[in-house]
Amino acid sequence: TLAYDNALPPLNNLFNRVKAEAHTVHSLALMSTEQTEQQSTQSTWWFDCTHQTPRFAIEEAIVHLSKQFVQNSSNHQLEITGAEWWIQHRHSTTPQHFHFDTDVGRHALTTATANGNGGADNEQVPIVRCPSLSSILYLTECGGPTVVLGQRPTVSEWTHQLEMIPAEATECDIMFPRVNRYMLFRGDMLH
Hints:
Layout: E1 2-4, H1 14-33, E2 44-48, H2 57-71, E3 82-86, H3 104-109, E4 111-113, E5 124-126, E6 133-137, E7 146-149, E8 152-155, E9 162-165, E10 172-175, E11 182-186
Antiparallel strand pairs: 1-11, 2-3, 4-5, 6-11, 7-10, 8-9
């Protein structure tokens, strides 16, 4: 887990533009789902870094952060193809449950055969697709810390059920929110 403070530069007032857009996106999500400020809202969008130019500040930030902290890092030899992004506004009484970042559409629709021979007797086994990296850009200092546990998902070859590797978390990273802090961690870690 890595963290970078003052991740978005003051140039072009990018952080403040991102924060203003985030507020607008959240307000639109509330209107479209008829939820109240007490409820959590979340919608996701995809930005194709290889074929799209940034349309607004949030996508400009994605390009800047991926170039500055992912592509220029010697620790990550990844080709960034895109980024799924969302704005999460959570009331202080609404908990965030531990989860894995996954391609939910692919996870729900994609399966492999258990014995691999393509026969009619094959049992369907779910495939868990996680991103190579996950990241968080904190816009405020509100809320509790992000806890990244040293566990990742896998599908058991024996039971074809989701399992945790290791079975019990023995390590974790804890990151507290700070304005303009950017956090990067392995995309398949429970958090």
